Amino acid sequence: MSLTATDIHVKLGRKEILHGIDFAARAGEVTAIVGPNGSGKTTLLRAITGELAYTGKVQINGQDCASMKPHELAMTRAVLPQAANLAFPFTVLEVVRLGLTAGLASSRPDTSDTLPLQALARVGLTGFEGRYFHDLSGGEKQRVQLARVLVQIWEPVLDGQPRWLFLDEPVSALDIGHQLVVMQLAQDYARAGGGVVAVMHDLNLTAMFADQITLIDAGSVRAHGTPQQVLTNDTLSAAYHCKLQVNTPPPMGGAWILPQAAHLN
Ligand SMILES: Nc1ncnc2c1ncn2[C@@H]1O[C@H](COP(=O)(O)OP(=O)(O)OP(=O)(O)O)[C@@H](O)[C@H]1O
Ligand SMILES: [Mg+2]
Questions:
Q1: For ligand 1, is residue 214 a contact (CB within 6 Å)?
Q2: How far apart are CA 261 and CA 265, in angstroms?
Q3: Confidence grade of residue 109 (pLDDT, cut at 50, 70, 90)
């Protein structure tokens, strides 16, 4: 089971932002979307998740997303946006419960707090449930939002169908320890049969946790493949307009990217 997006064009205002993107991800894997600021990563994620108008075709588990009802989509995939602020003074538990409500049209009418509390524990926020969301630090807020998203599609596979986590920069506000916790959580979700699509800026974390990488540049796909295929000196240096050196340190064997200079020339 997989996710495919074919020939995706998105126009915002008068400008075409995505110029015919083909993207694919498999359940059981973590697929990372990387690329420079403004290259179209968030736009692609929002098109795939049906939050933006697009032309092209998006299929999830073999079904055309355009024909799926909102509750079917909510049961199949959950989305962590790049920035998620709240207008109301919710407690942490209330925020996480929102995920439960989003997924409630399911066969699992669980309205207890068991799942939200389990999700908070997964992101290292046990004891935070009574705190006001507004009073949390940036990294704590990001992890609460992740707990909310997790609660929505807690089981990675439901009725034999994989469920999909879409994460837009899930570790951007996190310290290195929590970055590892969250990326491990994403990988565990995939290994349990779910699908994970994550927009990432940290290339080293991406090298550690992604099975496949799509590199977006100026609204088009510049490269797609395994970390070894995509994370090369030439591809990265050209996309990011700076000199980058990809190394392979023992004993981990994964790529390890070191910046060399601020500008290419
Ligand atoms: N509503 C809009 N109207 C016009 N242009 C927009 C709009 N929203 C986004 N854009 C432009 O679309 C381009 C892609 O934006 P997008 O948010 O997808 O980038 P990104 O790759 O996620 O970048 P970042 O790494 O900074 O999050 C940017 O140049 C942005 O300025
Ligand atoms: Mg973005």
A1: no
A2: 9
A3: low
